[in-house]
Amino acid sequence: MARNVFYSFHYDKDAWRASQVRNMGVVEGNVPARDNDWESVKRGGDAAIERWIDAQMSGRSCAVVLIGAETATRKWVKHEIKRAWELRKGVVGVYIHQLKDLNGATANKGVNPFNAFNISGTDFNRIVKTYDSPYYDSKQAYSYIYSNLASWIDEAIAIRARY
What 3-state DSSP class applies to 154? Predict the structure, then answer.
């Protein structure tokens, strides 16, 4: 099963944590936009951002939402979740608050970003799964994600095929 994924996360708060997951080498992921490229896309307005997101999702089989302390409140993360589902991609959430950031700090656990969605009368958080490491130690949390990410993605793709 193809595991080409689109990673969705709160860039300002979680880029360092997200890069740890993206660089695990477990799955092929989308290449992050360089700061200059992203600034250029943003200057084009909402329509340009939406086109950029669609282009980034092209050829991907799953959207992996890396959930940090503020992910659920982010406009573009919400858009990416909705768009991935519309494009028939698997969607899965992975909590990353236990991973250390650039300064060696962990974060508070964020709210499930799927709580805000409803699919044909069913709460999205009852369809889409999220995974939270049982470990508080950053290295153990990293190892837990590394060991399970591929199977979580496969499961998300299978779930999406049923809906």
Answer: helix
Contact 40, 33 (CB under 8 A): no
CA distance 107 to 129: 21
CATH of domain 4-30+60-161: 3.40.50
- Overall residue count recorded for the chain in this entry: 163
CA-CA distances (angstroms) from residue 155 to 62, 64, 95, 137?
10, 12, 17, 26
Per DSSP, helices labelled H in 23-128 are 35-43, 45-57, 75-86
Which residues are CB-neighbours of 117 under 8 A, at least 6 positions away? Answer: 81, 82, 85, 123, 124, 125
What is the value of pTM for the model shown? 0.93
Ordered DSSP codes for 109-147: PPPPGGGG-EETTEEGGGTS-EE--S--SHHHHHHHHHH
CA 55, 49, 73, 9 dihedral sign is positive
For 44-73, write each residue's pLDDT tens digit: 899 999 999 999 999 999 999 999 999 999
32 three-class SS? coil
Asked if 148 and 131 touch (Cβ cutoff 8 Å), the reply is yes
Report whether 72 contacts 34 (CB < 8 A). no
Strand partners, 95: 67
